[in-house]
Amino acid sequence: MNKKPSKKSSSIENYSHLELFNLGKIFFKEKKFIDFRSKGNRSGFEAIKDINLKIEKNTFVSIIGPSGCGKSTLLNLIAGLQAPTSGKIVIDGQAIKGPGPDRGVIFQNYALMPWLTTIQNIEFALNTVFPAKTKADVKERARKYLRMVGLEKASNKFPKELSGGMKQRVAIARALSINPNMLLMDEPFGALDALTRSYLQDELLSIWRKNKVTVVLITHSIEEALLLSDKIVLMSSGPSAIISEEISVDLERPRDREKIEQDPNYLKIKMRLEKHLLRETRAVEEVT
Amino acid sequence: MNKAISTRLTFAVAILSLLIFIILWQVIAQQGLLVKNFPGSFKTIGSLIWWVSDPFFDNGPNDLGIGTNLLISLRRVLIGYSLAVLVAVPLGVLMGMSKLAQSSLNPYVQLLKPVSPLAWLPVGLFVFRNSEITGIFVIFITSIWPTLINTAFGVASINPDYLRVSKSLGASKSTTIRRVILPAIMPNILAGMRISMGTAWLVIVAAEMLLGTGIGYFIWNEWNNLSLENIFVAIIIIGFTGFILDQFFGFLQDKFDYSI
Ligand SMILES: Nc1ncnc2c1ncn2[C@@H]1O[C@H](COP(=O)(O)OP(=O)(O)OP(=O)(O)O)[C@@H](O)[C@H]1O
Ligand SMILES: [Mg+2]
To answer: Among A216, A142, A104, which residue's Cα sits nearest to residue B170?
Structure first.
């Protein structure tokens, strides 16, 4: 009788945090009410196929690939916002069926609700995920996370009054406030200026260290991936994009933005990534 | 240019143009340049002052103060319009969210929208046998389309990011509608409500010529009295009221303008 739980907990240790098995996504054209041309054979656009990937607990993984290859599609599948056409997504040994508060999502365009103030945006997330919490509790917790990203003073401002970097910090605070153990980020710093980007990258790293979360980050930037990740996943150009390579980044932490560029290991990986991206981007340009 | 000076200048120009208009009107009427016995601006202003100084008298349905008639019209519009908004917003949300609702309701909307609401007046009289309810019914039909169409359009074109955030947090459908969709489409709803109100105010005047009381009937009655200056008084008052109503919605729209 008391053997069972111990067996269960020991087997959990064998799971990776996130596992993708033969994941594929085909976008089908929306079926028209009356459609004479397509007689039953539903042809679609295969964005990604046969994606297999394991991500360990509390690691930082970046996904990099040419524009339009299906990075956002992959992230949306992991977030549970879309259903895969084939394959499955397993988190802590459980196949997922949809979105859940165990995963915090940070979208490319911040996705703050413009009719809510900074703090109300976070409260919206908290109220949705923890409906039993009291108003005061929710407010206190929202404040705590705003403080964490250094925006306590802006709590009663509306998104339109904030800079891009501030908006992204609110989005990060919102995603973290629900206490997820996985953070899914879709090019979160792409639209920011270089200084703000460096600042937020450092902030993200310190949050990652403190909060014990697994991070999946989509990025265009090789430097960003190298600075932040334990592992970099390379995607081929679409359609039917696959994972073409997984590269471990065994550079010592904390990584210093200046010094790291002299590290021969860093330069070696960087070269490899650049070559890959160039090849895959060329493939895209030649198709279109 | 200095802003204070420029607004003062705009104001001065407006006043000047009004004065010129009043004088020209008076001269043209006095000289009989248009038709004989066309009321001049002085006579009209005199009438306006007379009607406005005692707006709420009641000497039977054919002799009501202009304020009383205005309130009768406003009441009909407000009731019919409010009922229309109460129906149009939920229906618009439904049409925006559900393909089934969209394809089953859209044909009726497209077919009925271009019909003058006055065509429904005999239908209303036949069914309700009551001019008051018929007036409200006509305004209801008038007001429903712009609000319905704008609401449905707002839902269909909502920023998908908001819905993704809501979904990623595991929000229920009702939470998403109340906390995300409705606030997000507030600007669309208000734009629709503004057009609905504008049209309702146009239609009530025409409808009331056939209904018995109200500001529209006042015009009809003064036509029977061949009192053109009183009709001008009504036109001024209708225009002013419509302007105030429209400004009110403009104010609301500014409040709910989320853009930068
Ligand atoms: N809902 C959809 N319906 C049809 N096709 C889609 C849909 N979403 C994405 N696609 C297609 O799938 C492919 C991958 O899109 P996705 O947005 O995942 O690319 P991405 O790698 O994130 O691109 P980017 O680097 O520009 O952000 C694209 O060709 C896109 O046109
Ligand atoms: Mg993308």
So the answer is: A104
Nearest to B209 by CA among B129, B140, B113, B134: B134
Identity of the amino acid at B62: N
A72 C-alpha to center of ligand 1: Å? 7
Contact A76, A285 (CB under 8 A): no
| A81 touching chain B per CB within 8 A | yes
Helix, strand, coil share (%) of chain A residues, nearest 5: 40, 20, 40
* Cα gap B50→A162, rounded to integer Å: 56
Residue A127 makes CB contacts below 8 A (sequence gap 6+) with A133, A138
The answer to whether the CB atoms of B183 and A105 lie below 8 A apart is no
| Residue A69 CA, ligand 1 centroid: distance in Å | 7
Using a CB-CB distance cutoff of 8 angstroms, which residues of chain A are in contact with residue B259? 114, 160
Choose between A17 and B194: higher pLDDT: B194
Of A30-34, A88-92, A169-173, A179-183, least confident by mean pLDDT is A30-34
Q: How sure is the predictor about A3, in pLDDT bands with cuts at 50, 70 and 90?
A: very low
State how far the Cα of A214 lies from the Cα of B194, in Å rounded to an integer. 49
pTM: 0.87
CA distance to partner chain B, nearest, from residue A158 (Å): 9
Q: Do A45 and A27 touch, CB atoms closer than 8 A?
A: yes
A73 ligand 1 Cβ < 6 A: yes
CA distance B195 to chain A (A): 23
Cβ of A48: how many Cβ atoms within 10 Å? 28
Determine which residue's CA is closest to atom 1 belonging to ligand 1.
A27
Fold of B39-255: MetI-like fold (1.10.3720)
Give residue-wise pLDDT tens across range A152-168: 999 999 999 999 999 99
- Does the interface predicted TM-score (ipTM) exceed 0.95? no
Kindly list the distances between the CA atom of residue B48 and the CA atoms of B19, B41, B45, in Å, as whole numbers in the listed order: 17, 10, 5
Where exactly are the structural domains of chain B?
1-38, 39-255
The reply to whether omega before A5 is within 30° of 0 (cis) is no
Q: Which residues contact B158 (CB under 8 A, 6 or more apart)?
A: B96, B181, B184, B185
Which of A137, A200, A132, A120 is closest to A166 using CA atoms? A200
> Which residues of chain A neighbour B165 with C-beta distances below 8 Å?
105, 107, 111, 113, 125
Neighbours of ion ligand 2 (CB under 5 A): A 72
> pLDDT of A193-235, one tens digit each?
888 889 889 989 988 998 889 999 999 899 999 999 999 999 9
Chain B residues with CB under 8 Å of A73 CB are: none
Contact A81 B167 (CB under 8 A): yes
* Chain B: closest CA distance from residue A100 (Å): 6
